[in-house]
Every structure is written in structure tokens, then in C-alpha cells.
Design brief:
The longest helix has about 40 residues. This protein has about 300 residues and is mostly helical. Helix content is about 80%, strand content about 0%. It has two domains: about 70 residues, no CATH class; about 210 residues, MetI-like fold (Orthogonal Bundle). Helix 5 packs across helix 8 and helix 7 packs across helix 8. It has twelve helices and no strands. The protein is flat.
Length: about 300
């Protein structure tokens, strides 16, 4: 059997295209109305994804500026967008010096929390007795407010980076655990039966079936964790730290320096957005079998 011909036929084609070589395919695709309509719709979707978020942010800034101007809000209560931008420029060295510790704590918590959740979910899938015993414990621990956990961890671990990383990891752990368990469980019964008929081992079933099925669930949880890990790191810095975005927010609040306060909030939000973007790019790299609109 001609393997090369099978590979060509199996590759998904855009509407109006066929598996023909080089310039001939490009010329016929360019002249095909169906292909042109598909290409135009794709460009509109991409443009929509880029333009609408920019319009939303611009509208929010305009509303913010209008509220400050109309209600004559005092600068120490709420600064104007221009004052925040000026603070971002004038105090960028201070902001970035405090951003790096928070970024390291959030990244460390993100990695540790999600790895722990994946390992625990794997154990729960293969041993239902352990899952029945410890899942309620995990649920009860997650019900404890974050601001109540943070002081305990600071007392146990000190004022270094360790409690902040742990808090960020705990914030990431539960959503990833729940989604990973669901993804590993929701395997197609027919696919599972086929693997058993083929005498596949538990390891083969896990890596070739369960794990691939769980990847969309996992990345959905990682998107949540990407922003939550920054929140965990900031909360940990509130409890006991002299550096970091959380400490800078407290300092600006006590000094009634609202432009610096809002600038620190913008930096933390930007950090969350950067983590979210990295997770989205990783999802598009690892999960290539989903339709374009799913991402």
C-alpha cells in the first residue's frame, strides 16, 4: 500500500482545496469562491479576536476618565488614567523590582500546585478507595478561606518565598485536580473497550487514551490557575513580606498614594494576563486536533 498517498489524503484541507502539489493547488484555491469565502471568514474571526478586546479596554479607560472628571473625585481616592500611566513611567524601576519576586512566587506555585494536582488525580483514578477517603479532605481544606491559610503558612515557614509559593500552589491545586479527574474519567467507553481487547496495560491506557482525553480539561484548569496563582502570591505578600506587588499595594494604601496603588494593580493584572497568554499558546501547541474555534 502506498503510505505517502494515505498521508496526503489524511491531511485536513480547507474548503475548496485538494491534495495537489505546489503552485497548481494555490492557483485553484485562490480562484475557488468557496475557499475565498472561508478565508475571508477566518480573517474576520481573527480580526474580531484582536479588535474587540482593544475596544473593551479603551471603553473601560474612557468610562474611568469620565467618572473622575464628572464626579470630581479627589486624586488620593481614585487617580485618573493619565496619573496612573505617569506613575507607571516614573516609578517603573520600583514597580519592576517588586514584580520579579511576585512573578517567581506565582510561577513556582503554578508549577508545584498543578504538578501535585496531576499526580493526585492520577492516583485517584487508579485507586477509588484512596479517592473516596481523601477527596472530601481536599474539599474541606479548599473551603478554608485563603486569608486564613496564609498566616498559618507564614508562621510555619517564615517570611521568605516558601509560604508565598505554597499559597499560590494551594490556589492552583483544587481546580486542576477536579478538572483532571473529570478528564481522566470521561473516556469514551468504546475506546476503553478497544484498548482492553488489544490487551493494553494500565500504563498504555493512561498515556495513550486517558491523558490525551484529559488535556482539554487540564488546560481549562490551567487557564484559571494562571490568574489565580498571582492572586495567591499577592495575598501571601500581604501577610508577611517587605517586597513584591502585594507589599507595594499595602505600602501605597497606607500612604494614600493612589496612583502607585493603581499602578501596582495594573502590574499584577498584566502578570496574570502574561501567564494566561502563555497557557493559551501552550494549549494551541499541544492540542492540535481541536477545531480552530475551540481555542
Amino acid at each position: 500500500m502506498n503510505t505517502r498517498s494515505i498521508d496526503v489524503l489524511d491531511v485536513p484541507q480547507a474548503p475548496g482545496t485538494s491534495a495537489m502539489p505546489g503552485n497548481t493547488q494555490a492557483a485553484e484555491s485562490a480562484a475557488d469562491p468557496e475557499y475565498l469565502a472561508w478565508s475571508a471568514a477566518r480573517r474576520r474571526r481573527l480580526m474580531r479576536r484582536r479588535v474587540l478586546p482593544v475596544l473593551g479596554i479603551a471603553g473601560l479607560l474612557l468610562l474611568w476618565w469620565a467618572a473622575i472628571a464628572v464626579f470630581n473625585v479627589k486624586p488620593f481616592i481614585a487617580p485618573s488614567p493619565g496619573a496612573v500611566l505617569q506613575t507607571l513611567l516614573d516609578k517603573r524601576a520600583v514597580l519592576f523590582d517588586n514584580l520579579w519576586p511576585t512573578a517567581l512566587e506565582a510561577a513556582g506555585g503554578f508549577v508545584l500546585g498543578n504538578l501535585a494536582a496531576i499526580v493526585v488525580a492520577t492516583v485517584f483514578i487508579h485507586n477509588k478507595t484512596i479517592a473516596d477517603i481523601f477527596f472530601p479532605v481536599v474539599l474541606a481544606f479548599n473551603a478554608v478561606p485563603l486569608v486564613a491559610k496564609a498566616p498559618v503558612l507564614v508562621l510555619l515557614m517564615g517570611n521568605g518565598m516558601e509560604p508565598k509559593i505554597t499559597i499560590a500552589a494551594l490556589v492552583c491545586f483544587f481546580p486542576t485536580l477536579v478538572n483532571m479527574v473529570r478528564g481522566l474519567e470521561s473516556v469514551n467507553p468504546q475506546a476503553m473497550e478497544l484498548m482492553r481487547v488489544l490487551s493494553a496495560s494500565k500504563t498504555e491506557i493512561f498515556f495513550r487514551l486517558r491523558l490525551l482525553n484529559a488535556l482539554p480539561y487540564l488546560f481549562s484548569a490551567l487557564r484559571i490557575a494562571a490568574s489565580m496563582c498571582v492572586i495567591g502570591a499577592v495575598v501571601g505578600e500581604w501577610v508577611g513580606s517587605t517586597v513584591g506587588i502585594g507589599a507595594l499595594i499595602l505600602q501605597a494604601t497606607f500612604n494614600f498614594d493612589s496612583p502607585l496603588l493603581y499602578a501596582a494593580i495594573v502590574m499584577s493584572a498584566s502578570l496574570s494576563g502574561a501567564f494566561f497568554l502563555l497557557v493559551t499558546l501552550a494549549e494551541r501547541w499541544f492540542i492540535r486536533w481541536q477545531p480552530e474555534g475551540v481555542h
